[in-house]
Amino acid sequence: MYFGNITSVLSSDPQRAGKIAEKLGKLHENAKVNIYYRRNGDYIRSILVATQYPEKLLCLAEAVSLSSRVILNVPDSPKWTDGELGLLADSSGAKVVITSDLSEDKVRKMFKGIGLEGSEITQGVNDVPEGEEKDKGFIYVDKAFNVKGVGTVVTGFSFTPAELHEKLNAVPVNKEVEVKTIQVLDEDQKGVKPGVRIGFSLRNAKEEEMRDTYILVKPSVPLIKEFEAELVSYPWSKPTDGNYHVVGGGVAVTATLKVNEGNAQVSLTSPLPKLERYILLNVNVKQGKPRVIGYLKPK
């Protein structure tokens, strides 16, 4: 069965991000998030490049939250957007590799005070180690459509092993669906492991319901909507009670936070799978100030 890992490329220069991605894979899907693939036997590398930053931070954050590795490009003349991208990379909890022509001292000084201080710094990235994403118990869904003669089809990324005829719960519509067929790179499969771009045709699924669906979860996987979390914020961010965006597993939902001395009571508008951490954003701050507040670690 196919397995793989997912990497996001971050750069304030979209063309530069694309050139880095082209060294790591071939462009297969061109949209608000471009997806590049490289296959080696049963291993498939997926490289994500969001194309609408800085206007659409949420889309970029969703891509980063799908990734176990982030490649962060720092230009010769960094701007506020490059600092924000550094915060986003750090808040994701992914392994970060920084690529830059600047000296190592300048790069480390730029990110002093956050977790990127100890990241690997290189002038170029030509490879990504093979690996398999962790089993998180869900399938991320980004598109749903109807195919004549097949029925309702969804695409996304696997974050758990899945097999034909397996029954999964569609969230947030809360409906059980069955995996009728599985495709990877246009090939029919009997099953798939974590970290792979998939297409599932589903039984007991209507197209309009699946358009509202953002994950398919196994019955035993816990979902959270109201929870207490450790709140880790950056020195220049002072989160207070209010509304924010919480991002995890490729999904951004709005949330209300009640903040108390490094902790927060979190109330999500829609449930998410329980993860080790979630990116915390405030997209309504004034331009030029970081929209990345920090991250949440559920207790």
Describe this structure in words.
The strands form 4 sheets. Strands 2-3-4-1-5-6-7 form a 7-stranded mixed sheet, sandwiched between helices. A 6-stranded antiparallel β-barrel has the order 8-9-15-12-11-16. The protein has a 6-stranded antiparallel β-barrel with strand order 17-20-19-18-21-22. The chain is built from 5 helices and 22 strands. By secondary structure, the chain is α+β, with helices and mostly antiparallel strands.
Main beta sheet: 7 strands, mixed
**Cα Rg:** 19 Å
Distance from first to last alpha carbon: 34 Å
Q: What value does the average pLDDT take?
A: 96
Strand order of the largest sheet: 2-3-4-1-5-6-7
Overall geometry comes to globular
Question: Could you tell me the number of beta strands?
Answer: 22
List keywords for this structure.
299 residues, alpha+beta, seven-stranded mixed β-sheet, 48% strand
List the helices and strands and how they pair.
Blueprint lengths: L2 E8 L3 H11 L1 E4 L3 E8 L2 E8 L6 H9 L3 E6 L5 H13 L2 E6 L3 H7 L9 E3 L15 E10 L3 E9 L2 E2 L3 E5 L3 E10 L2 E3 L1 E2 L4 E7 L3 H5 L3 E3 L5 E11 L8 E7 L2 E10 L2 E11 L4 E4 L10 E7 L1
Parallel strand pairs: 1-4, 1-5, 5-6, 6-7
Antiparallel strand pairs: 2-3, 3-4, 8-9, 8-16, 9-15, 10-14, 11-12, 11-16, 12-13, 12-15, 17-20, 17-22, 18-19, 18-21, 19-20, 21-22
